[in-house]
């Protein structure tokens, strides 16, 4: 009885080895696959060219995908960096400063903070000429400012360094500009045009004007 059992076990092992051999007969190529043998086809073990090492193919695919993703990310980051580097901050051409304006011992509130352009302090047109007691005229078409006081007439033009006092042509160190809807004019020029005395205290950033 024991001999019969041993014989059955031996036959089973032999059949298992033969089946495995038939299923994987022939050598695999560099890609890990090979053509199915005629015996394997007859036994229904395979139908044609097939692989035995699918893991390698998947790994290669995964590696390619990772590389592609990495390249795409690098390219995207490079493009973003290039775009950001082109970004620039507009140059306003002036520096805002806190200035105290005193005319005839009275502090004059400013509607817009003073600015410095080319070393020249500009303050709001209306605040300045009102404090000096001058009358203003504004020509929208030419952007020309005309100020009158007594027998003196002063003319300025926005965005131009050309100015006039009476019939005399003058050149400003800084042109009048518009900031937040306020026309800004050179403080010293405006005051001295009407024969006022101008003093500048750099320690306290104070302009003191005394009219005749």
TrEMBL record:
Keyword Signal included in the entry's annotation: yes
Keyword set, alphabetical order: Signal
Region listing for Disordered, in residue ranges: 56-90
Signal peptide location: 1-23
Superkingdom, natural source: Bacteria
Annotated ranges, domain Copper amine oxidase-like N-terminal: 103-209
Pfam families according to UniProt: Cu_amine_oxidN1
Compositionally biased tracts (Low complexity): 56-88
Protein name: Stalk domain-containing protein
Organism, as annotated: Paenibacillus woosongensis
Lineage, broadest ranks: Bacteria, Bacillati, Bacillota, Bacilli, Bacillales
């Amino acid at each position: 009885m024991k001999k019969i059992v041993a014989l059955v076990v031996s036959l089973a092992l032999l059949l298992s080895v033969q089946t495995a051999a038939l299923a994987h007969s022939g050598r695999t190529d560099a890609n890990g696959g090979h053509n199915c043998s005629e015996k394997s086809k007859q036994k229904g073990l395979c139908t044609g060219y097939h692989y035995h090492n699918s893991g390698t193919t998947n790994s290669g695919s995964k590696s390619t995908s990772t590389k592609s993703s990495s390249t795409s990310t690098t390219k995207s980051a490079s493009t973003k960096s290039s775009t950001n580097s082109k970004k620039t901050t507009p140059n306003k051409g002036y520096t805002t400063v806190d200035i105290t304006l005193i005319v005839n011992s009275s502090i004059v509130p400013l509607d817009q903070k003073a600015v410095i352009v080319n070393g020249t302090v500009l303050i709001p047109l209306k605040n300045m000429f009102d404090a000096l007691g001058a009358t203003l005229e504004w020509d929208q078409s030419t952007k020309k400012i005309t100020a009158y006081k007594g027998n003196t007439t002063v003319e300025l033009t926005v965005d131009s360094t050309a100015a006039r006092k009476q019939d005399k042509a003058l050149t400003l160190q800084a042109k009048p500009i518009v900031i937040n809807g306020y026309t800004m004019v050179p403080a010293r020029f405006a005051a001295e045009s009407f024969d006022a005395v101008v003093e500048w205290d750099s320690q306290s950033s104070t302009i003191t004007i005394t009219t005749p």
